[in-house]
Amino acid sequence: MKEFVISEVKAETAILVGLITQEQNEAKTKEYLDELEFLADTAGAVTVKRFTQKVNGPSQTTYVGKGKLEEIRDFIKAEEEAEREIGMVIFDDELSAKQIRNIEAELKVKILDRTTLILDIFAMRAQTANAKTQVELAQYRYMLPRLQRLWTHLERQGGGSGSGGGKGSVGLRGPGETQLEMDRRIILHRITLLKQRLAEIDKQKTTQRQNRGRLIRVALVGYTNVGKSTLMNLLAKSDVFAENKLFATLDTTVRKMTIDNLPFLLSDTVGFIRKLPTDLVDSFKSTLDEVREADLLLHVVDISHPDFEEQLQVVEKTLADIGAGSKPSMIIFNKIDAYTYVQKDADDLTQRTRENWTLEEMEETWMAKLNNDCVFVSAKQKTNIEQMRKVLYQRVRQLHVQKYPYNDFLYQDYE
Predict the structure, then answer these.
(1) What is the number of other CB atoms lying within 10 angstroms of the CB of residue 54?
(2) Which among 105, 187, 351, 377 is most buried, taking Cβ atoms within 10 Å?
(3) 64 and 82, same structural domain?
(4) Does 162 reside within a domain?
(5) Distances (CA, A) of 183 to 30, 139, 160, 188, 407
(6) Counting Cβ atoms within 10 Å, is residue 53 exposed (0-12), middle (13-18) or buried (19+)?
């Protein structure tokens, strides 16, 4: 009998490239590349090497300098000779069509930028028709200004009006221009259709929100992979998909939950990230409307992350950009079970930094800064969840009294 050998599918390998500039020091670049590696891992690629370069700013033609590009090319060739093929090179910033074309010509491998990678993950995670439509719209918007590089083998053969003053003659326009214009027209038409479809979805979502009755709406917001879906499952006893990957949740999930005698709506929303593509923010308007129309935002923060303060600022800036920056909010510091600190030796006289603070010191600092309007929990270990429910009850109760003053019977406690 013939035996079939099933070979293991190898994951694509990737090289990461970032810049060290005056605005972005070496430590910051390392952190951004760590996040880029996590994005690559989420998309299914294995990082084998990182390249960084100290420059004043990205090159307009090749992002990195000529020497660094040659160094990357030599590494790729050496890996190929050792039968370790490099699948792609991923750059930590958004690249222009010109940069991609020049880099591809030099490296001869697939070139991705941070935006392409995020869009790819969104396409992979999208489950509902709504999410798929939003992702497709973002992809087309990103693709439109970069169409030219797809048709470099069909360069325009001639140009001008052919009336004597032009540089070319009638009949000498190459197929490149025709194909490019055709593709542009198809994509613009597709974008129009997707916008119409999203407008219909918007209308349906608005009707759904209006039919939810006289209930306070609470939305979980935060950086990607901070534990929003795990908290949602814990509070609302729901089954939202939660995983230690970036952008595990794309579709907004709304659940009705009750604390004591107070019902309200809790929604889990898409996570934010540094350098979030503008096209994605625009395309996910219907999803982000859940945040805009919420009465209270629960900003979830991963306190175990070494740079959680910057993540907090990224989310606050994104909320301000979508018009939700002034909404009532409270901060939930999650993952206290994973929090670590560096204990200083007794004879170490150097100044203590935030890395040396204990969790208790961190709690006291942020409690004072936010007027006690925050809680420290572990959704995974279910630590301090009851305390969070009590604080949440008080906030929702306060908002309900303000919004529905004649519906105060909800709070009568006859025990």
Answers:
(1) 13
(2) 377
(3) yes
(4) no
(5) 39, 14, 22, 8, 57
(6) buried
84 and 229, same domain (yes or no): no
Alpha carbon distance 132, 142 (integer Å):
15
149-167 tens-digit pLDDT: 554 444 444 444 444 444 4
Query: Does 191 lie in the same domain as 252?
Result: no
What CATH number is associated with residue 94?
Answer: 3.40.50.11060
Give the model's pLDDT for residue 69: 94
| Backbone conformation region of residue 63, classed left if phi is above 0, alpha if psi is from -120 to 50, else beta | left
Q: Please indicate, yes or no, whether residues 198 and 181 belong to a single structural domain of this protein.
A: yes
- Torsion angle defined by CA atoms of residues 102, 60, 47 and 82, in that order, rounded to the nearest 10 degrees: 40
Give the structural domain span for 251.
214-411
- DSSP code of residue 146: G
Q: How confident is residue 251, by pLDDT bands cut at 50, 70 and 90?
A: low
Q: CA torsion sign, 276 to 266 to 312 to 338?
A: negative
**Which pTM was predicted?**
0.77
Place of tokens 């970069």: 146
Examine residue 4 and state whether it is found in any structural domain, yes or no.
Answer: no
Counted domains in the chain: 3
Select from 319, 317, 315 the least CA-distant residue to 305.
315
Q: Count the residues in the chain.
A: 415
SS3 string, 227-252, reads CHHHHHHHHHCCCCCCCCCCCCCCCC
Kindly report, residue by residue over 14-34, the tens digit of the pLDDT. 999 999 998 888 988 998 999
How distant is the alpha carbon of residue 71 from its chain centre? 30
Are 302 and 245 found together in one domain? yes
Give the max Cα distance, the chain: 95
Q: What is the pLDDT of residues 190-217, one digit of tens each?
A: 889 988 888 887 777 777 666 666 788 9
Residue whose structure tokens are 């000498």: 172
